[in-house]
C-alpha cells in the first residue's frame, strides 16, 4: 500500500470518527431536549394543579361566607378570600419555569388553608352552639305548654320556668348612639354650640312581650354624677322607689324592631367629660352607654 492510499484511509477513518461524534452529540441533545420538554410539561402541570387548588379554596371561602351570619367571621373570611384571589392572579402571570416563586406560592396556599381550617372550626363551634340554643328554646316552650295544660306537673318546675319566661319577656334596647346638634339641628362638635343631644336607640323584636303603648325613660348622668332633669316632678318608679329621669318617649310597640330617638334640649352649661345614658323600659334598665363631650 502506497503512501497516498494510507493518507486516504486515515482521512476516511477521521471522517467516520467525526460523524460518529456528531451523531452521538445529536442523539444526546435530542434526548436532553426531550427531557427538558417533559420537565417543562411537568412544571406546567404542577402550576395548573396549584391554580385549581387556589380556585377551589376561593370557592370554599365563598361557600362558608354565604351561610354565615356572624359579621366578624364574615370580615375575616372575606379578607382571606381576597388574599387567595390576589395570590391566584400572581400565580397566573408567573411562568411555570419560575420554580422558586411557584414553591413560595404553594407555601402561601398552605398557610391560608391552615387559617381556613381554624375558621372552619370556629364556624362549627358556632353552629353547635346555635343548635344547642335552638334545642334549649324548643325545650323551654315544650315545658311551658305542658305546665299550662297540667297544673300538677308545674309544682316542681314552676319557679325555674318562671325565671326563664321572665328573662324572655324583657324588652331589649340596643344600637345606642348620641348626636350633638346646634340650634339649627346641624351636627356640631363644639361644646359651647350644643343645643340638643339626640339619643338614637333601637328596641329589639320580642314576640313574648304584650304589644301596645310603651314609655322609654332616658336618664343622663353628667361627669360629676348629677342627673340631668327638667324638674323634681320628672320621676318614675324603679325597684320600689322613684328616680329622676331626663327625658321620656312614648312608642307604640307591635313586637317588631323599633328605631327611634329621644332628645334633650340643652338649657344649662354642660361640663366637658364622660357622660352616661341609661334607658329604662317596662320597669327594667334595658341598656346603657357612655359618651364624652369635649371642649
Structural summary, described in words:
There is one protein chain. The chain is an alpha+beta fold and 295 residues long. The protein is built from four helices and ten strands, in the order H-H-H-H-E-E-E-E-E-E-E-E-E-E. The strands form three sheets. Strands 3, 4, 7, 9 and 10 form a five-stranded antiparallel β-sheet that branches. A three-stranded antiparallel β-sheet has the order 1-2-8, with no helix packed on it. Strands 5-6 form a two-stranded antiparallel sheet. A hairpin with a 5-residue loop joins strand 3 (212-221) and strand 4 (227-228). Helix 1 packs parallel to helix 3, helix 2 packs antiparallel against helix 3 and helix 3 packs across helix 4 (158-168). The chain is elongated, with a radius of gyration of 39 Å.
Topology:
Layout: H1 3-66, H2 71-93, H3 99-149, H4 158-168, E1 173-181, E2 196-203, E3 212-221, E4 227-228, E5 235-238, E6 241-244, E7 247-253, E8 258-265, E9 273-281, E10 284-293
Antiparallel strand pairs: 1-2, 2-8, 3-4, 3-7, 3-9, 5-6, 9-10
Tell me the overall shape: elongated
Distance between the termini: 122 Å
The number of helical runs is 4
What is the count of β-strands?
A: 10
- List the uncertain runs: 160-166
Task: Tell me what the CATH architecture of the largest domain is.
Answer: Sandwich
The overall average pLDDT, rounded, is 75
CATH superfamily of the largest domain: Immunoglobulins
Structural class: alpha+beta
* Percent of residues in beta strands: 15-25%
The radius of gyration computed from the alpha-carbon positions, rounded to a whole number of angstroms, is 39 Å
CATH class identity of the largest domain: Mainly Beta
The H-and-E topology, N to C, reads as HHHHEEEEEEEEEE
- Largest beta-sheet characterization: 5 strands, antiparallel
* CATH structural fold name of the largest domain: Immunoglobulin-like
The tally of domains stands at 2
Helix percent reads 40-55%
